[in-house]
Design a protein that fits this description.
This protein folds into 2 domains: 6-45, no CATH class; 53-102, no CATH class. Helices cover 48% and strands 6% of the residues. The protein contains 5 helices and 2 strands; from the N terminus they run βαβαααα. It has helices spanning 17-27, 36-40, 53-66, 71-82, 89-95, and strands at residues 6-8, 31-33. β1, α1 (17-27) and β2 (31-33) form a beta-alpha-beta unit. α3 packs antiparallel against α4.
């Protein structure tokens, strides 16, 4: 009999793709769930290294526009990516946006 074992946690330790594999091996789980770390920069799943944050945001915005995602959801997701950057001038300008065009 075979059971799938999933492990969640480790967000503070997982910074790059290799950390996901290491976490999986240490725990002996068949799968690992990544949430907060992936919300910050979803390119963490790239085996050849994460992309620069603003590249990820730009690509995310293209998809949001292409698939008519609603502005509040798009803004929420980007806010999770920006985190402390929201305190910058660019971040404050972003926080004032209300439409996909403004974002």
């Amino acid at each position: 009999m075979y059971f799938n074992i999933f492990c969640s946690g480790g967000s503070k330790e997982i910074k790059v793709f290799e950390d996901i594999i290491k976490f999986k091996n240490i725990t002996g789980c068949s799968s690992v769930m990544i949430a907060r770390t992936a919300e910050k920069n979803c390119s963490i799943f790239k085996k050849d290294g994460k992309l620069e944050l603003f590249t990820v945001i730009r690509d995310y915005l293209r998809h949001a526009v292409d698939y008519d995602n609603v502005a509040p959801n798009t803004k929420y997701c980007i806010q999770n990516m920006l985190q402390n950057i929201q305190e910058t001038e660019q971040g404050r300008h972003f926080l004032e946006s209300t439409s996909l065009q403004q974002i």
